[in-house]
Amino acid sequence: MSKEKEEIKIIAQNRKAFHDYFIEETYEAGIELVGTEVKSVRQGKVNLKDSFARVENNEVILYNMHISPYEKGNIFNKDPLRPRKLLLHRHEINKLSGYVSRKGYTLIPTKVYLKRGLVKVELAVAKGKKLFDKREDIARRDAKRELEKQFKEKQLGI
Q: Which molecular-function annotations from GO does this UniProt entry contain?
């Protein structure tokens, strides 16, 4: 029996994280949500800007992830910015707490997606970039773009 490719639907991405941080390692984590939050996530009403995670009491908690209230949720809607527990294996939590205990490392969510009907968060172990690192990345990207442009012109014979 052949394995089918797992269906992944990306709901939200934190593009700013790749600009502001060096991504060391990523983990896939489940997230503890209530019913109306799941419905909002399925509609794509998630914002990862300024969100981060911490290891507290051997649990990973996600802060500042905004999930808009579900329109038809009435009294069952929760606070959009409430802390949410991430579901990881114990050995993964221990590894993450080891990373975070080192100076300069933090946990940043980079993606929220649906995998086989379940809401998942891609959590990255990240180290903050300095201003000169960001400038260096921009210069490298511009140089690469210029080289590709020259190569394309040479190919076309312009």
A: RNA binding
Query: Considering Cα of 34, then 82, then 42, then 87, what sign does the dihedral take?
Result: negative
pLDDT of residue 109: 92
Distance of CA 21 to the CA centre of its chain: 12
> In 3-state terms, what secondary structure has residue 80?
coil
- Topology of the domain comprising 8-129: Small Protein B; Chain: A; (2.40.280)
pLDDT score at 158: 62
Q: How far is CA 29 from the centre of its chain?
A: 10
Residue 95's H or E segment, with its range, is helix 90-101
Q: At 156, which amino acid appears?
A: L
pLDDT beyond 60 at 73: yes
- What kind and span of H or E run contains 65? none
Q: At 91, phi and psi to the nearest 5?
A: -65, -30
pTM of structure: 0.73
How far is 16 from 130, CA to CA, in rounded Å? 14
Domain boundaries, the chain: 8-129
